[in-house]
Amino acid sequence: MSCIFCMIVDGTIPSKKAYEDDEILAFHDINPQAPVHILVIPKVHIPSVDGITYENSSVVARIFEKIPAIADAAGLTNGYRVISNCGSDTCQSVPHLHFHILGGRTLSEKMA
Ligand code: DGP
After folding, report:
1. What is the CA(5)–ligand 1 centre distance, in A?
2. How far is the CA of 46 from the centre of ligand 1 (A)?
3. Residues with CB under 6 A from ligand 1
4. CB neighbours of 7 closer than 8 A, spacing ≥ 6?
5. By the number of CB atoms within 10 A of the CB, which of 27, 39, 84, 101 ranks highest?
6. DSSP-derived secondary structure letter, 99
7. Distance, CA of 94 to CA of 2 (rounded, Å)
8. How many CB atoms lie within 10 A of CB 37?
9. What is the torsion angle, in degrees rounded to the nearest 10, for the CA atoms of residue 70, residue 110, residue 60 and residue 14?
10. Are the beta carbons of 25 and 17 closer than 8 angstroms?
11. Measured from the CA of 98, which atom of ligand 1 is nearest?
12. Which pLDDT band holds residue 79 (cuts at 50, 70, 90)?
């Protein structure tokens, strides 16, 4: 298996978990860009937002259903930003769908 996030899902690569259920996993980013930087991923391999389909989109809904509780548990009571990079223009570096949760300080007004 060559996908590093699939290896985090199966435990081959350790991670600091923030939330896990049968469909999704949230863990702290190895290179945090804010005081709190958590990645939320589907356990099933979807390469990016471009790979979301009618057949697999229920896991994306589940991710967004759980994000508020994940953010709250991480102490992000003043707000947070959710970002997903998709493709080379966004510098997506891991080709497994993931949503960054960023917060813990006032973030830049700029998003790009
Ligand atoms: P992106 O550039 O949107 O593809 O973000 C990928 C993120 O994944 C990046 O912020 C760093 C993080 N990351 C890469 N490898 C690992 C890892 O092995 N463990 C953890 N916890 N995070 C990782």
Report:
1. 8
2. 15
3. 4, 13, 15, 27-31, 39, 85, 91-94
4. 1, 13
5. 101
6. E
7. 11
8. 18
9. -50
10. yes
11. 3
12. very high
Write down the pTM of the prediction: 0.98
Which residues does the annotation mark as catalytic?
A: 98
pLDDT tens column, 37-70: 999 999 999 999 999 999 999 999 999 999 999 9
Point out which residues pair with 15 in neighbouring strands.
none
Measured from the CA of 92, which atom of ligand 1 is nearest?
4
Length of the chain counted residue by residue: 112
3-class SS of residue 48: coil
20, 84, 93, 102: which to mutate for ligand 1, most atoms within 8 A of CB?
93
d(CA 76, CA 54): 31
The domains of the chain, with CATH numbers, are 4-100 (3.30.428.10)
